[in-house]
């Protein structure tokens, strides 16, 4: 009968729909999780760029001349290369790396930069500057954890081995005060370049992640 046929079709549809979420929903939630993690990390890099702009001026003023002069652009010393990870990698070479390699490089660099920033936090001469540095360190720690979350969501392992500097934070290795200030100057400069490039990295990465699929949700009402 027509009523029996309708009931049979309805029963078949209910059974089919109840079985749909088993595998597809898991896949969609993974994609959505990766996309959300990448977007969050991108937003955090842009926020840190803004934070660094507000921090750089008072910190360079704290260092004094010539570090706070707008046209001061010294060559990078070899010792600075050893202490602070450089972002001055050829752009075409950087883009030619795999997503995993770029993420691992970002994770290592920010882990090291965070160690040096925490050392600066303990040496800053004013309470206001220490407060700003402490706030920035907290945000940068969040970025390191966020990058780790992106790598995990994409199935990439975290880099192994020490990510921090070979010299313990707070240990003075500069032979004089000027070179110590030069290290601080390059720390801020490299941070600026890393954040600029990371924002571009995560903006490209979020475009590669497939858009989240809308899943059908059933609400059991009365049956």
TrEMBL record:
GO annotation terms (biological process): cell surface receptor signaling pathway via JAK-STAT; positive regulation of B cell proliferation
Name of the coding gene: Clcf1
Range of residues in the leader sequence: 1-25
Protein name per Swiss-Prot or TrEMBL: Cardiotrophin-like cytokine factor 1
Highest taxon of the lineage: Eukaryota
GO molecular function: cytokine activity
The keyword Glycoprotein belongs to this UniProt entry's keyword annotation: yes
Chain coiled-coil ranges: none
InterPro entries registered for this protein in UniProt: 4_helix_cytokine-like_core, PRF/CT
Annotated GO CC locations: CNTFR-CLCF1 complex; CRLF-CLCF1 complex; extracellular space
Keyword list, A-Z: Cytokine, Glycoprotein, Secreted, Signal
Family: Belongs to the IL-6 superfamily.
Function: In complex with CRLF1, forms a heterodimeric neurotropic cytokine that plays a crucial role during neuronal development. Also stimulates B-cells. Binds to and activates the ILST/gp130 receptor.
Gene source species: Pampusana beccarii (Western bronze ground-dove)
PANTHER family given in the database record: CARDIOTROPHIN-LIKE CYTOKINE FACTOR 1, PTHR21353
UniProt keyword annotation of Signal present: yes
Assembly information from the UniProt record: Forms a heteromeric complex with cardiotrophin-like cytokine CRLF1/CLF-1; the CRLF1-CLCF1 complex is a ligand for the ciliary neurotrophic factor receptor/CNTFR. The CRLF1-CLCF1 heterodimer binds SORL1 (via N-terminal ectodomain); within this complex, the interaction is mediated predominantly by the CRLF1 moiety. The tripartite signaling complex formed by CRLF1, CLCF1 and CNTFR also binds SORL1.
Localization of this protein: Secreted
